[in-house]
Design brief:
Elements: E1 3-4, E2 7-8, H1 9-15, H2 20-29, H3 48-58, H4 64-71, H5 76-92, H6 97-108, H7 117-121, H8 124-132, H9 139-145, H10 151-159, H11 162-165, H12 171-180, H13 186-202, H14 204-211, H15 220-226, H16 232-240
Antiparallel strand pairs: 1-2
Helix pairs in contact: 1-3, 1-5, 3-5, 4-5, 5-6, 6-8, 9-10, 10-13, 12-13, 13-14, 13-15
Length: about 240
Amino acid sequence: MDRQDGKSQLYTSIVDLRDEAQAVNLARFFRTGPGQYGEGDVFLGLKVPVTRQVVKRLWRTCTFADLEECVGSQFHEVRLAALLVLVQMFQHAKNNPLEQQRCVDFYLSHTLYINNWDLVDLSCYEIVGAWLLDKADRHLLYELASEGHSLWEQRIAMVSCMAFVRQGQFDDCLAIADRLMGHPHDLIHKAVGWLLREVGKRDRQLLVDYLAPRYRTMPRTTLRYAIEHFPPEIRKDYLKGSI
């Protein structure tokens, strides 16, 4: 990719679209204040559709060197652009397992920079989940979900299961949900509940059976997300613990 002032075209194209007023709103929305989960993150003020437009225009000319530069940027939207380019590169290499493996390896070696929930949710199941979809060994996700890994790596483990759930494969999703059920952070509670809800949209009885021994003790946020599409009266019974 052509470079301007030592920066890739992907980098400069994102930075040139900065919107200071919108950046303030995004910084607040993504909790970048002291002690918050996004502490220290810097926003340029681009909404996701704008970033996607840039990626759509430029991804075919991007190199891994460009991604290396962008994924480590201080700017949130530049990191997002790098991840969205990587998604495109992975999907374009569907008949090239070695190139897809390179994309997965790059992703997993840069999780330090995949450090907010949108960065995780817009990339992980399109890369890691899709890569594991036809593989029997999915221990990678269980490792990422284990203690000692970051909040964001644990969320990657959970949300990557979306690729399986969409294909009617639920076992790993439920197993990782169990592994993360006692997690202290609300962002994991939400991710677990979201994925359970997706299971329930495809197999309501499976979700009901899963919840039966767990719903009284699971985090309330997780339960609320999981039963979001249940009839109102049934939701009330779950929340009252009277199912």
